[in-house]
Amino acid sequence: MKEFSKVILVDENDNEVGTEEKLKAHIEGKLHRAFSIFLFNDKNEMLLQQRALSKYHSGGLWTNTCCSHPQPNSTIEHDIADRLLFEMGIVCKLTWQFSFKYKAVFDDGITENEYDHVFTGYYDDAPIPNPEEVESWKWISVSELKEDILINPQKYTEWFKVALPIVLEKINLQK
Question: Using CA atoms, how far apart are residues 119 and 4, in angstroms rounded to an integer?
């Protein structure tokens, strides 16, 4: 597994305009390409991960199954499969659903400014998470998840709260 240490800088239309070291791009708030993976099981539950406490931002927060940044001189198809295996020990078919832009500024000086490509897939086994990336994981029903986000929004990552309603609409899963 190669190190995901650079990001691809993009313009407002997702055209590549360069590369940057990942942390520097986040400190300077540069728009860059990202991906988010949402996995569901045959019970229509979503697989969430709790980000490792050691992450440089959003550590300990709950989020979608896997997320990261595609790498220069690679393909997003390769990188989503590579990262899902690295973070969660999972191999499964993934389908692109949509892309969106979002920007969030955190108290620690980090800015997420991403052009995020969202993929979904189906998986029914238990993951084998990488403890350097993942603190915990759980399968959760969509209705329970939506209720908990309303009650405890601070427990979830910013991009997850933006992408989740769109994902549920795209795959027609609202319960």
Answer: 18
